[in-house]
Amino acid sequence: FLSKPASVEVLGYPFSGGQPRGGVDEGPEALVKAGLLDQLSALGWEVKFNSQAMNDVRELAVQEHDSGIGKMHKPLAVSAVNERVAADVAAIQERGALSLTLGGDHSLGMGTVAGTKRRFPEAALIWVDAHADINTPLTTDSGNLHGCPVSFLLGLEGTDVPPFNVWLQPCLRPEDIVYIGLRDIDDKEKRILRELGIKVFTMHDVDAHGIGRVMERVLAHVGAARPIHLSFDVDALDPTVAPSTGTPVRGGLTFREGHYIVEAIAETGNLVAVDIVEVNPALEDEASAAQTVAIGCSLSRAALGETLF
Ligand SMILES: N[C@@H](CSCCS(N)(=O)=O)C(=O)O
Ligand SMILES: [Mn+2]
Ligand SMILES: [Mn+2]
Ligand SMILES: [Mn+2]
Is there an atom of ligand 1 within 6 Å of 159 CB? Predict the structure, then answer.
């Protein structure tokens, strides 16, 4: 699906409005400072970094009178930022490049996936996460919109609200999405997942079958000839592996399981978009932050084809 020679356009969105913890907006800068762009060039990719988008989002993130609509926190900021994200990602893919989005919190998935779906309506979505991020404005308890992007993409009840519905139309079908790594799902989210028959591989499945078999099943569900959007929340990894993230949950993916997921997807040659989100360099100690940033870089390299041999 990508024109050759392969070029990757990197978007860094310093956005934290989908959740309450400061620092996740420092994720993009930390990943770039760690040398990610040079690392991707070293893999042979033509790399472009959109620093203008990074600065624009800092402004879009500040919205007046952004007190919640219903229970939602900062809906105006989340909507304004993601409207821009969708346009940026779609434009990158119109140019035949792969889009790599560095977060920032996972509410950015609303924009990145909407952008991919404009260019590739048939795209599949692989959501690697400890959480399902499928709460709606009506089911959320926290009001944090980083727990809701998938419901907006599906157009579930309660998501057809301004300002989101000004720019976002439902663009994802339940059969388009596959989850890997789930282990902290709210009761109302479980009901949604079951009612929609969404494909879910929890940590229990990873334990039972091993990551190799799980990926065979994930890719069989996706199908061999479909563009793939990978949205990777680093909290899918075990907190001992990626400690600096806002909502850590014990019992996560090992370093190798996380990388194998990405390697197996990269191997298909069908990857058109990657999100690496929820890296929060302000959390825990400096060593933990450096470790988490380094893993964000290595997952990005794996997505762009870096292999062990
Ligand atoms: N389900 C919870 C937690 S959501 C965690 C969001 S993320 N993007 O996975 O960190 C909620 O809705 O607040
Ligand atoms: Mn998430
Ligand atoms: Mn998560
Ligand atoms: Mn999180």
Answer: no
